[in-house]
Amino acid sequence: MAKREKDPREYQGVRDEIRQQQMKTKDMSIKGKLGYFWDYYKIHTVAGIFALFLVVSLIHDITTAKDYSFYGVMLNAGSMPSQELETAFAEYAGLDENKFDCFIDTNSVMSMHNTSQYDMATSQKLMALTQTKDLDIAVFDSEVYNNYAYNEMFTDLRTIFTEQELAPYKEHLYYIDYAYIREGEGNMDYENPALLYYDNFTIPSPEEIAAEADRHRRPEEMEEPVPVGIFIENSPLILQSNAYGGLIPVFGFSSTSQRIDTGKKYLEFIFNESIDFASMLQEPE
């Protein structure tokens, strides 16, 4: 009777591969085993080390990151040094920089006349800062401010200032007509009125910019005027820093800010005539 051949054992996958690798390295020296391991597993090893590094870095960033004591964005400010401004304001407001971060972004830019990657990135950043309630104040040029004001990004100043507190800024208030916003509620054909006053592809002249901004100084011509900003082109900070050349900067409080009092302190800071902003912000030679 013929001897029955033994059926080959089914492939066991990873288990067999491990057994095969063990057989290959069984008689190797330690140095040989290390060399063999490196030849066959160096990519996996490097990838594993890199992944571990990323995890450790992420954990480090999360555990060591400081909360904000203040977060401001000064869009299209030009060449205004942010670090010097942050340090000076933190000292002025008595903010503890050892425990918290005082951050003032003076480098971001945005135009209402194109849709470059930079503009899109800035727009997304502003949305994120507003949603996370990190943003306290914003200073935009009047064109950009107009657009965001009608999207209700800024707080009605009457809700955070008393009449007496608001009095020093009475001649500098920036108004929007809230009737336009009410008109847009539930109206699919509504168009942001900020977009009706300029051509997206035409850069306006200084005269046109001034005329557009001037509309927001005349609440008597509005159906439902709401003060949502403060013109700061004549503040010591702007005059001495030469920021916003040819533009008209407007200051506002983010509608989601959790640090309104610190934002008020920053407004007071930039209007303080005793501060030598010119020397403070002077670029080193």
List descriptors.
alpha/beta, 11 helices, elongated, D-Maltodextrin-Binding Protein, domain 2, 6 strands, 285 residues, six-stranded mixed sheet
Summarize the structure in words.
The chain has about 280 residues and is α/β, with parallel strands linked by helices. The protein folds into 2 domains: about 45 residues, no CATH class; about 210 residues, 3-Layer(aba) Sandwich (D-Maltodextrin-Binding Protein, domain 2), CATH 3.40.190. It has 11 helices and 6 strands. The protein has a 6-stranded mixed sheet with strand order 2-1-3-6-5-4, sandwiched between helices. It is elongated, with a radius of gyration of 30 Å. The N and C termini lie far apart (about 100 Å). The mean pLDDT is about 80.
Topology:
Elements: H1 14-25, H2 30-64, E1 68-74, H3 82-93, E2 101-105, H4 117-131, E3 137-141, H5 142-149, H6 163-166, E4 173-177, H7 178-184, H8 206-214, E5 225-231, H9 236-241, E6 249-253, H10 260-270, H11 277-280
Parallel strand pairs: 1-2, 1-3
Antiparallel strand pairs: 3-6, 4-5, 5-6
